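Table 4 source record.
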Amino acid sequence: MELVIAIVCLAVGAGGTFAAMRSASNGRVREAETQVQQAQAQATQVIDDAQRQAETLKKEALLSAKEEIIQHRQAAEAEEKQRKRELRTLENRVMQREESLDRRNDALDKREHQLSSQAGQIDKRSREVEALYARQATELERIAELTRDEAHEELLDRVREDVTHEAATIIRDSEQRVRNECSKTAREIISLAIQRCAADHTAEVTVTSVHIPSDDLKGRIIGREGRNIRTFEQVSGVNLVIDDTPETVVLSSFDPVRRETARVALENLIADGRIHPARIEEMYHKASDLVQQRVREAGEEAAFDAGIHDLHPELVKTLGALRYRTSFGQNVLQHSIEVGELCAIMASELGVDSRSARRAGLLHDLGKAIDHEVEGPHAVIGADLARRYGEDPSIVHAIEAHHGDVDPSTVLAVLVQAADAISAARPGARRESAENYIKRLEKLEEISNSHNGVERTYAMQAGRELHVMVQPEKISDAQATVLAHDIAKQIEEEMEYPGQVRVVVIRESRAVDIAK
C-alpha cells in the first residue's frame, strides 16, 4: 500500500510538473507528454508488481494458516486418543475393584454365617458356665460356712489391709527418696543464706515511751485546763498518755512515722522548757521536717546497701518509713533488707538473677508503711504502689504473692516467700503473744485428736513438733505412717505458722504377764 501511495504521489507530481512546463513554454509540450507517458507506464508497472506481491503474500499466509490448523487438529486427535486410553484403563480398574468387592462380600457372608453358629454355641456354653458357677458358689458357701456378702466383706478387709500397707510403704519410700535428693541441697542453700545475713531488731509496736526529767513536767505538758496536751494531740495526731508511771509519758499511734515525729517534738519541748500551744506547733513542724529527712535517708541508705540506684523517689520515701514500723517486734526495714539479702543469696545458688531477687525482697513489705491509711492486705497495697511507680511486672507479682494473696507463678515469687518465712521464723526474730501461742498449740492438738485411733497428743518445742500417741490395737505400723502424713497435710491446709511442724506418730504395744 505504501508503494501505491508513493506511485500516486509521483504521478501527481509529474502532472504538476507537466502543467508548469506547459505554462512556461509551449515548445516543450511534446517532451513533457512523453515524460508523462513514461511516468504513467512506470506507475502502472509498479502497481502491477505490488498487486502480484500482495497476492503472493496472501497465498503464503493462507498456506501457513492451513498448516497450523492441520497441526492443531493432529494434536487434538492425539490428546483424544490418550484420554480414551486412560478411560479404558480406569474402566478396567473399576471392573477389577467390583470383582474384588464381590469376592469380599461373599467371604463376609460366609464369615457371618460361621459367627452366627458360633454365637449360639457360646450362649449355650455361657449358660452352662453360669450354672456351674452357681453350683460352685453354693458348695463354697456350704464348705466355708460363709455367705456371699460375708466372704465379700472379708476379702475387702484383706485387700484394704494390703493396700494400706503398700500405701505406707510407697509413702515411706517416696519421702525417703525426696529427702535424700532435696534435703541436703535445701539445707545448704538456706543455711548459707542465713549465715551470710544478719539484722538487728527492735521491739516497739504501736507505743513509744518518752522519759522526762521529773514528774513535775507532767503538769506542764498537760497545761492549764489541758490546753497543751489537747494542742499536742491535735497537731501531731498522736495520743499522749500520762499516767502514774514515774518519769515516763507514752505516745500511742498506729502511724509509726507520726509517732516518731511526736516523740522528737516532745523531747525537744522538754529540753527547751517552753511548753505552750504556739511553741508546740513550732516544735512539731521542725520535728516533722527532721523525721522526713531521716525517712528519706533511711530509704536511700537501704537502697544503696542493696545496690539499687534507679528506685523511684516515692518508693525510697515509703521504704524509709518502714524504719519506724515493727511487726511482732521485728523492725520491718531491717526485715526487708534481710529478705533482700536472703533472696539474692538463694537466687545466686539457683542460677536466678540476684539483682531482681534482692530488689523484690527489699520492696516486698512496702505496703506496711501505708497499710494504716489504705484498706486491704499489705501485700496487695505494696504491689499496687510498686506498679504505680513503674516497677517491673515480675517484681510486682513477687510482692503481691509473698503472702499467698495470689498464687506465685515465678521462681522469683517463690524465693521471696521462702526468704520472708526464713527471716520471720528464725529464733529471736519475732515475738508472739501468749494468747496466739496457746491458740496455735490448741489447734495443733485439736487437728491431731480428730483422727481415729489417736489416744492423746502433745505439742512440743513451742509448737514446732507434735507427738501423737495412738492405740496399738486400732493403728498398725503401716497405718501410723499414713496417719502422720494425713495430720501433716491437714496442718498445712488449715493453719498458718512460722517454719515447719514435725509430726511424730508413736505406737507402743506392751505384753504383760504375771509369774506365780
